[in-house]
Design a protein that fits this description.
Blueprint: E1 6-8, E2 14-16, E3 20-21, H1 27-40, E4 44-46, H2 54-64, E5 72-77, H3 84-98, E6 105-108, H4 136-146, E7 155-158, H5 162-169, E8 178-182, H6 190-198, E9 202-206, H7 223-232, H8 236-247, E10 250-251, H9 258-264, H10 272-279, H11 303-312, H12 314-320
Parallel strand pairs: 3-4, 4-5, 5-6, 6-7, 7-8, 8-9, 9-10
Antiparallel strand pairs: 1-2
Length: 323
């Protein structure tokens, strides 16, 4: 039985602790998955323009029969819309696609600006990503003005480390309500967790089970995770979802399989001994780092590394990133 826990944002709004992620879900699959999730009991749907499935997510919301005001919906500003004049229009597009009048939370998806325009992935003639010189603080100022429109109830960021948050907070009038980042027992980010807690910023975990972006074993596939889950009579996915909520952050499991959607929602309280065993799995393993963009997002790779990664990926980008 799901515990239906919530966290409180700095706006005083409640955000459901277990949300439903829609990343990497194909349009026709995601419509049914969102409907199933809402009928199962989820009341938090995480969306993004770049997932290119927001119309279908909106259809799933409608088909569920759950009232809009009962659902916490998150949207995200894509990298090509960081210029101040592009921000509100990007949100308007998300609202139109979802078929709603407002979102509960609107995030800056990445601290990296792409060349402005209607192509999601602008490339130069060599296939290298075209970046734009727009500081995140400038984009944030434009996002702050969205709060006055009623089109979003709160604003936040995603994939920001401590340095980038400190830079943003230096000029911000509104403190981000949320920072959505990758978190699971392999990548716990304790310093960032503490920093956000100190500043009243709720952390939300994407890829809480790990993911298959790199082709490596996911966190949910770890032998120790399976051992603990079996001992507690739970599913490994349920265990990792519960670990995140119990640690103190929102989690966004995702699936298009009805049985998995339902099981991921059944969070529970983990005994302290098993919590410590999961904490011991830390290995600073990041599954999500798009080095090919040529931008050192997390200040971990170095400018030389990402420049080379951008150039090396050029030919592949020409066929892989065509939208």
């Amino acid at each position: 039985m799901a515990l239906n826990r919530t966290f409180t944002l700095n706006t005083s709004a409640k955000i459901p602790a277990v949300g439903f992620g829609t990343w990497q879900a194909a349009p026709r699959e995601v419509e049914r998955a969102v409907e199933v999730a809402l009928r199962t009991g989820y009341r938090h749907i995480d969306c993004a323009a770049i997932y290119r499935n927001e119309q279908e997510v909106g259809n799933g919301i409608k088909n569920s029969g759950v009232r809009r005001e009962e659902i916490f919906i998150t949207g995200k500003l894509w990298n090509t819309k960081h210029r101040p004049e592009d921000v509100e229009g990007a949100l308007d597009k998300t609202l139109a696609d979802l078929g709603v009048e407002y979102v509960d939370l609107y995030l800056m998806h990445w601290p990296c600006a792409f060349k402005s325009g209607n192509k999601f992935f602008p490339l130069d003639s060599n296939g290298v990503f075209e970046l734009d010189d727009v500081d995140a603080s400038v984009t944030w100022k434009a996002m702050e003005t969205l709060l006055k429109t009623g089109k979003t109830r709160a604003i936040g960021v995603s994939n920001f480390n401590i340095r980038r948050l400190e830079s943003l907070l230096a000029t911000a009038t509104v403190i981000p309500a949320v920072n959505q980042i990758e978190i699971h027992p392999y990548l716990q980010q304790p310093s960032l967790f503490s920093f956000c807690k100190q500043h009243g910023i709720v952390l939300t975990a994407y890829s809480p089970l790990g993911n298959n972006q790199t082709g490596e074993p996911r966190t949910v596939d770890d032998g120790k995770v399976h051992e603990i889950a079996k001992k507690l009579g739970k599913d490994p996915g349920q265990l990792l979802v519960s670990w995140g909520v119990q640690r103190g952050h929102v989690v966004l499991p995702k699936s298009v399989t009805p049985s998995r959607i339902e099981s991921n929602f059944q969070d529970f309280v983990i005994p302290e001994e098993e919590m410590q065993e999961l904490y011991a799995l830390e290995r600073h393993k990041r599954f999500n780092f798009p080095a090919r963009w040529g931008f050192d997002i997390f200040d971990e790779a170095g400018e030389e590394f990402v420049r080379k990664a951008a150039l090396d990926a050029g030919e592949e980008n020409k066929t892989k990133f065509t939208v």
